[in-house]
Specification:
- There is one protein chain.
- With 460 residues, the chain is α/β, with parallel strands linked by helices.
- 42% of the residues lie in helices and 14% in strands.
- The chain has a six-stranded parallel β-sheet, sandwiched between helices.
- The longest helix is centred in the middle third of the chain and has 32 residues.
- The structure holds uridine-5'-diphosphate-xylopyranose and adenosine-5'-diphosphate (ADP).
- Adenosine-5'-diphosphate (ADP) binds next to helix 5.
Length: 460
């Protein structure tokens, strides 16, 4: 392995998405002497990264991109050239759930990872460290290694696992001060040297005590396990939310009471309309598939319940709307506030809003949607409808969506929804006025005072 720290180090990241873009921007921001190039096949995405309007919305991202772009941070479609020149190549491409063949609906589709490995093997003429950043099933490093060894036999590769734990909406904060950085590598001398090279990059701004090194398999499995535990907590509190609704308990009060037990802790106990995002469902299903693959059927069933519960929660929310509106929403205007899977992101992958809107459309409602960051064309694409479909209207403000609606449903916890002057909306609204708060962010008492019937998740 070349002594990459003695010369100007070059990093190439394949994949300019929600993970690759912000992570590389942070490395470039913190390490001015490292040249970082993010490459992607998608020309439009790269053009956006090079423009004033970045392809992803993330608080604080613009500032760090504009600090480093053109200095030591570059976005490019020259994939082969950038790989060839790099000392370290991060693989940060998408690993969606497989939709075909063996493992369809559960296993991760590794075709993009495989393609990257083949591309690296084809164009490399110097030794490189290859870093798995994308979430992948355990033992993917073996596959990557095998593919890499099919290339130029004089070139040596070390494969590291360095999963990303950032959450969207807080990506910059998470990258700036991560709870931990996890790096897995081979136990051989060359493996340990590669681990150290990557540790030295992160150690520029992360306390060494928070940089954890393990073997490759532990690192790969830790990422899936972390996401499965987080998703499981949400499904657990959502299961309790149904019980609260029928017993008169309040789920937020229960969450506060149990969260004060230091063994449980207060985070990730917010009942909701169901979790979304590109990771939780995919990673839990991936874990289910892995368990099945190794014949661990009870373990697979156990984890699958996390997804069953999440699907049930989304459906329960729509059922509540229909039931409350006298068992029919046909021809009724339903305002949907928020379409992103959580606040402070424009990402809609697996957002509960898609399922809720589709079910309401199926029930023949007139669905009026507003989200501060998600473009109209993305919403139409997610709902698989054309822009002139009369069943859906995309609005440019929350007030426009809510005015004269029969019911309002809050599906994303955007801060601006807490400040809407619902009194103004109510005045021009047909009565009765129902508000379904899928995120429990509104002041219920204040809204009831002005005449709304408010339904939160997990309270009577
Ligand atoms: C997650 C992990 O948190 C992150 O570590 C990993 O790298 C990627 O997957 P992300 O999906 O971006 O991050 O967001 P997260 O904050 O985890 O939220 C996921 C979903 O769970 C959202 O829909 C959110 O609204 C929901 N959620 C979260 C709840 O419903 N209740 C909670 O208490 C917390
Ligand atoms: P994530 O949320 O994991 O970052 P995204 O889907 O946002 O996932 O981003 C992954 C990116 O990887 C996409 O922009 C896609 O075009 C890119 N990509 C996938 N395969 C390749 C490849 N072989 N070469 C270059 N870019 C790729």
């Amino acid at each position: 392995m070349a002594d990459v720290l003695s010369a100007l180090m070059k990093i190439c990241c394949i994949g300019a998405g929600y993970v690759g873009g912000p992570t590389m921007a942070m490395i470039a921001h913190k390490c001015e002497d490292i040249e970082v190039t993010v490459v992607d096949l998608n020309e439009e995405r790269i053009a956006a990264w090079n423009s004033e309007k970045l392809p992803i919305y993330e608080p604080g991202l613009e500032e760090i991109v504009s600090d480093a772009r053109g200095r030591n941070l570059f976005f490019s479609t020259a994939v082969d050239e950038s790989i060839a020149e790099a000392d370290i190549v991060f693989i940060s491409v998408n690993t969606p759930t497989k939709t075909y063949g063996t493992g369809a609906g559960k296993a991760a589709d590794l075709k993009y990872i495989e393609l990257c490995a083949r591309q690296i093997a084809k164009v490399s003429t110097t030794d490189k460290i290859i870093v798995e950043k994308s979430t992948i099933p355990v033992r993917t490093a073996t596959t990557i290694k095998r593919i890499l060894s099919s290339g130029n036999s004089n070139v040596k590769f070390q494969v590291l696992s360095n999963p990303e734990f950032l959450a969207e909406g807080t990506a910059i904060k998470d990258l700036m001060a991560p709870d931990r950085v996890l790096i897995g590598g081979e136990e051989s001398e060359a493996g340990q040297k590669a681990i150290q090279t990557l540790v030295d990059v992160y150690a520029r701004w992360v306390d060494k005590a928070n940089i954890l090194t393990t073997n490759v398999w532990s690192s790969e499995l830790s990422k899936l396990t972390a996401n499965a535990f987080l998703a499981q907590r949400i499904s657990s509190i959502n299961a309790i939310s149904s019980l609260c609704e029928v017993t008169g308990a309040n789920v937020d009060e229960v969450a506060r009471a149990i969260g004060m037990d230091s063994r449980i802790g207060p985070k990730f106990l917010k009942a909701s309309v169901g979790f979304g995002g590109s990771c939780f469902q995919k990673d839990v299903l991936n874990l289910v598939y892995l368990c099945e693959h190794y014949g661990l059927h009870k373990e697979a069933e156990y984890w699958e319940q996390v997804i069953t519960m999440n699907d049930h929660q989304k459906k329960r929310f729509v059922d509540k709307i229909v039931k409350t509106l006298f068992n029919t929403v046909s021809g009724k205007k339903i305002a949907i506030l928020g379409f992103a899977f959580k606040k402070d992101t424009n990402d809609t992958r697996e957002t509960a809003a898609i399922y809720v809107c589709r079910d309401l459309i199926e029930e023949q409602a007139h669905v009026c949607i507003y989200d501060p960051q998600v473009p109209a064309e993305k919403i139409y694409a997610d709902l698989e409808i054309s822009e002139d479909d009369p069943r859906v209207t995309i609005c440019s403000s929350a007030k426009e969506a809510a005015t004269d609606a029969h019911a309002i449903a809050i599906l994303t916890e955007w801060d601006e929804f807490k400040d809407i002057d619902f009194k103004g909306v109510y005045q021009s609204m047909l009565k009765p006025a129902f508000l379904f708060d899928g995120r429990n962010i509104l002041d219920r008492g204040r809204l009831e005072e002005i005449g709304f019937e408010v339904y939160g998740v997990g309270s009577a």
